[in-house]
Specification:
Blueprint: E1 3-5, H1 25-34, H2 37-48, E2 55-59, H3 65-73, E3 78-83, H4 86-98, E4 104-107, E5 120-126, H5 134-147, E6 148-159, H6 167-173, H7 184-193, E7 197-207, E8 210-218
Parallel strand pairs: 1-4, 2-3, 2-5, 3-4, 5-6
Antiparallel strand pairs: 6-8, 7-8
Helix pairs in contact: 2-3
């Protein structure tokens, strides 16, 4: 059974919607699929080697495409999607129900995860990190590391910085300034600074909106 938890964050905060604008949300899924986003996410999932019994978190799950994919391909894992946008979560809930998959959706922010320490075997982030303000990026990695079990891993894909994103995408999502510190070197450095081990770039992919970069990092076993 798909569940939805509308836990309002401790303080009211602004956020950049997945589609950049609320009015664009109904078109977001077909737009991302057309531009290759679904194929890019499938590669991310394949890299993570999810196994039966794993607990999986998708941070910034948006309209739920990725978590539904995880649950369809790995029915014996527990999947949670987290996002601050209640409109996106409503779409994600309907999508999961339409696919008849059991997924929990929570409302919350990436830099204040509402989960206990060492709760997850895998944490994912796809096309979300560039939405974050600069001062939330390092705390987001710290929270991901805290929520992962020893030996668990973080898997992320995102645009590789302003030099790799086409002008159209930055106008569409109004996040050009947030891409300034989203370079590959910056992301890898933040992962290392927040205590992750085996930090690496696991590949690149060209999309119509620009080049994307895959990342992976591990929480060292206790």
């Amino acid at each position: 059974m798909t569940t939805r938890t509308d836990a309002i964050p401790e303080r009211r905060r602004s956020y950049l919607p997945a589609a950049g604008h609320d009015w664009f949300l109904p078109l977001y899924d077909p737009f991302v699929k057309l531009l290759g986003g679904d194929r890019a996410r499938r590669v991310l999932l394949d890299q993570a080697a999810v196994r039966p019994g794993h607990h999986v978190l998708d941070v910034g799950c948006g309209t739920g495409t990725f978590v539904v994919l995880v649950k369809r391909l790995h029915p014996n894992v527990e999947v949670i999607g987290l996002d601050p946008d209640p409109k996106a979560l409503a779409r994600a809930t309907r999508k999961a129900e339409g696919e008849a998959v059991s997924i929990r959706f929570d409302q919350g922010f990436a830099d204040r995860l509402p989960y206990s320490d060492a709760s997850f075997d895998r944490v994912f982030s796809s096309f979300m990190f560039h939405h974050l303000p600069t001062d939330e990026k390092e705390p987001t990695f710290r929270e991901a590391r805290r929520a992962l079990k020893p030996g668990g891993s973080l898997h992320m894909l995102d645009f590789g910085g302003p030099e790799h994103a086409h002008g159209f995408v930055t106008r569409l999502i109004h996040s050009a300034h947030r891409l300034q510190d989203n370079s590959e070197e910056r992301v890898l450095d933040l992962m290392r600074r927040t205590g992750f081990a085996e930090v690496k770039n696991t590949g690149h992919r060209a999309m119509l909106l620009g080049r994307i970069v895959y990342y992976a990092a591990v929480v060292s076993p206790a």
